[in-house]
Amino acid sequence: MHMFYSMNGTLADQLQNHLANYGPPMMNSQRDGGEDPRMYMNGSSASVSTSNGSSSMGNDQKFPSYKRMAQRRKVPEGELCAVCSDLATGYHYGVASCNGCKTFFRRTIVSEQTFICQYNGNCDVNKNIRCACRHCRFNKCLLVGMDAKALQLPAIQNDRDRIGPTKKVKMSSGSDDEQATTPHRLQDQEIIDQLTQVEGLCQELRRCIIPEVTGVTHALTSPCLLFETTDLKVDTNIMFKELYPASMNDIRMWNIREMRICIEWAKTFDIYQRLNLFDQFALVRNFAFAFNLLNRVFYSPDHGPDKIVFQNGAFIMRQPQQQVQLSGCRPIYTRQMDEIMIPFRKLQLSVSEFATFKAALFFNPDALDLSAPAKTEVFEERNKYLGGLFTCITQKIGIPSGVQKYGSLLMMTASIQNILAQNEENMQVMELFKNWEVDPFVKELCMKRA
Amino acid sequence: MHMFYSMNGTLADQLQNHLANYGPPMMNSQRDGGEDPRMYMNGSSASVSTSNGSSSMGNDQKFPSYKRMAQRRKVPEGELCAVCSDLATGYHYGVASCNGCKTFFRRTIVSEQTFICQYNGNCDVNKNIRCACRHCRFNKCLLVGMDAKALQLPAIQNDRDRIGPTKKVKMSSGSDDEQATTPHRLQDQEIIDQLTQVEGLCQELRRCIIPEVTGVTHALTSPCLLFETTDLKVDTNIMFKELYPASMNDIRMWNIREMRICIEWAKTFDIYQRLNLFDQFALVRNFAFAFNLLNRVFYSPDHGPDKIVFQNGAFIMRQPQQQVQLSGCRPIYTRQMDEIMIPFRKLQLSVSEFATFKAALFFNPDALDLSAPAKTEVFEERNKYLGGLFTCITQKIGIPSGVQKYGSLLMMTASIQNILAQNEENMQVMELFKNWEVDPFVKELCMKRA
DNA sequence: ATGGGTTGGTCAAAGGTCGC
DNA sequence: AGCGACCTTTGACCAACCCA
């Protein structure tokens, strides 16, 4: 049911292992502030998952951690609520807090509400204005360490230890309309965090020597390299030395690498792994070049609006150069700069936003050759990332600007599509006139009806 | 009444003239009487409630007395409002009172209004005439002990972070901007309303005989036909008679009509009129076929997922037919159905949403050949419509679903772009092989570098 | 049992909405 | 252009519950 929460082999597990073994990847955290000793980003993001499986199992953990934390006597006289600085009435969900914040937190969790801040996501939360922005109040609850798993969710059928109705037993019928899921809000953040971490892993992989494969199918069916980056050798050839004009060989090399990384990236999505090979192929074929293009311009160091710069220092200039110009092929780099690179810079995308945007693009229900059952699944998946993207954007800049940023970003898909079409045309020309041999792996990935 | 398009006749002016039922908003909401020295909080309670020696005086230092007063259960059955003797709905601000007086008191406090009595300041206040004198009603509120301290300011801002509308949001137009509770909302609403009205005019024009023009430039520089639809004859040839398979001539006829309408539609945007002819041409050339396509599928009566039906009953089927198939041209109608028509239906777009979506698409800063200064202007304009579109969508279905609908809609631009590219390719083939003569007007509008 | 802490549940009274 | 019936949200209070 929940991709991040299933028992084994999930992305979450793999990330967990990877991080445990090798330390966290560099990632840009959008959460600032917080002298809070309890990290809830990595460690507890996994622990949230226990909400649907913890206490009912034969867990030798007698009581949740909040109990241990708070088992020391009552809250000291005059202690204040960690959320709003009102007078605390006790330790609730692991944190000294007032009745209001306690109830607010529980209500938000059980009703799975999602709030969005109108401003910058850093509204003040105190006794007097705690009700003004629910997004920031809930954020503060999480920040100070309120723990959702202290909640006795009805998800656990075992109602042995549930608190029944205090007044009336009006359980109308046994019709169970309960969703029994973790709250949406947390899920959004979870999605963003995971994508951002994977994005970091991709950047690591970009520095490594990537093992050869025999073809796309081979790549699709082998284990994901992103969790083995520490086992891979760093490729010294692609370290930056100096800026120099890219040759066709540079471009070819980066194309191959990026397409390989695209497949490794795709495999980090649990839902993708569950598709059949045919649909996997369809999705990746539909997206590989876009992946290539987007990463190229997003990660290009900013040397002005007329240069796309690769990691190793090779650059493409706006004015088509002899080296990268093939007869019969229309130059496409001008558009990549004007319609993708420059707008990206103007929009000031964060890494998290970029990562979530790519995921939303990847799960394209209109991808050519996608089977009908996959279409609906992919559509749902895309919606997840769209929601995540919106949350990610509006958290920082508020709704009114966020709506425009989100909209401008999504409308870039038109330009991307345009550039893709031109690229495909060029590849057909190359194929036809044999004036440049396209790598078979790239060809397999980029040409429709391959 | 015949209207020529004048330099300074804005769209709003023309709509007003055309529809003649759009009254200007009243801007005269002047605060009445500003010389009353009574302040609402301290001054007034001092002068009014001390005279009465209200019970709340003794203990309001620590926390509001209403809590203790009202902590005993419900207001007794049949208790009356202390202000107006209507039936009390509970203890509000420390006093048994009715809903009306409760709301009146809060409104008065938060808006910091000051009233003046027309008489002697001792008007009767009861259920029947409680609204007659607001000064005396407010006085009575204070007199019976309503306590401003019971107000929790700042207010809970549901509208800021709500996840969905309480019920159904009605669109209220034409109110003054003084309140400014949600200023951008009102502005958005105006945008939406205008676009929706223009959309209606387009539908009227579609039924009429459209005068011939010599070319795109001629069409761009003549007065806008949309405000003269009543002067145009209805075209009886295009009224619906029966369903029949479309011929190439049908398609050709509708293409020409729709492109003409596109230009008339474009001219309704004030900002568009202010662009130079070159940029006007760029925008309309970039969008004309999309306009054609979108209207075709959106307004196609629903005869299942395999038919696009024109107004006159001509229909295109999914399986390419002899009549509409030209050698060398790839069939494009399958994609129009699968990627545009069916998704539109699934998204359940309203006319307003559709109209706003088109405006956002039209103002495309990446349109080919658009001049640099126009780009930024067009970008800003698009943002306006993006905001409007989001408002329009979320008004009905709330934010979480709205984010996804908005996102899915905007991502359709990729498919639209794709279909456009195929279409252009087909037109080039036609041009090349001369197997079908494209109308020069359409050719001028649809082919790049025309 | 008992008592002091948690939990979830309750509902009067806050503020918000929108047809009238 | 304000009114108020009706709505959602809040949080003080309370019963159920869990350990020492």
UniProtKB/TrEMBL annotation, chains A, B:
The keyword S-adenosyl-L-methionine does not apply. Coiled coil: none annotated. Its main location: nucleus. Residues 42-59 have a biased composition (Low complexity). One of its GO terms (molecular function) is RNA polymerase II cis-regulatory region sequence-specific DNA binding. Residues 24-69, 162-182 are annotated as: Disordered. It is found in: Nucleus. Gene3D superfamilies: Erythroid Transcription Factor GATA-1, subunit A, Retinoid X Receptor. GO terms for cellular component: nucleus. SMART domains: HOLI, ZnF_C4. Residues 78-153 form the Nuclear receptor domain. Belongs to the nuclear hormone receptor family. This is Uncharacterized protein. It comes from Caenorhabditis nigoni. The gene is Cni-nhr-1.
